[in-house]
Specification:
With 139 residues, the protein is mostly helical. The chain has one domain. Helices cover 78% and strands 0% of the residues. It is built from six helices and no strands. It has helices at residues 2-17, 21-32, 41-58, 60-91, 93-118, 131-135. Helix 3 (41-58) packs across helix 4 (60-91) and helix 4 crosses helix 5. The longest helix is centred in the middle third of the chain and has 32 residues, at 60-91. The termini are far apart. The model has no long low-confidence stretch (mean pLDDT 87). This is UTP20 protein. It comes from Hemiprocne comata. Residues 1-116 form the U3 small nucleolar RNA-associated protein 20 C-terminal domain.
Length: 139
């Protein structure tokens, strides 16, 4: 998709690409600022190359305006999601509590994995299997 965006922008030229610049820059910006653990470095390099190409194509001023608008929009979305999550915590405490328990459980499992990878001789404690308790129909 990034190669396609670059090819289209070169094909359209300087004047016809300007209205579509924020639309083209949105996925490129998202890829540059992503913080995923398993991020593909080739995608990041490709997005950087296409951004440089767009910079040369439309000029620094037009590019800067479009890029700043994309940046601003992404920050607003992020802030809105954060605010919505905080409101959901107050409105639905049971959902928030479930999310918190899940996060703590994942954190503990990550810690155990890290201990096992650093010290293979030392095994982290695993939760006991409650097979009979799980089979019982108790509420």
């Amino acid at each position: 998709i990034f190669k396609f965006l670059g090819a289209i922008s070169v094909d359209l030229g300087q004047d016809r690409i300007k209205p579509y610049l924020p639309t083209i820059l949105t996925p490129l910006y998202r890829e540059l600022n992503s913080t995923y653990a398993e991020q593909d470095p080739t995608l990041k390099n490709l997005s950087q190359e296409i951004i440089e190409l767009l910079k040369k194509l439309v000029g620094l001023e037009a590019f800067s305006l479009a890029f700043s608008s994309v940046q601003k929009q992404a920050n607003q979305k992020r802030a809105m999601r954060k605010k919505q999550r905080a409101l959901q915590t107050v409105a639905n405490p049971d959902i928030a509590a479930r999310r918190k328990l899940k996060r703590h459980k994942n954190k503990a499992e990550t810690r155990k994995r890290k201990i096992e990878s650093l010290r293979p001789t030392c095994k982290a404690k695993r939760p006991r299997s409650h097979a009979l308790k799980d089979l019982a129909m108790v509420e």
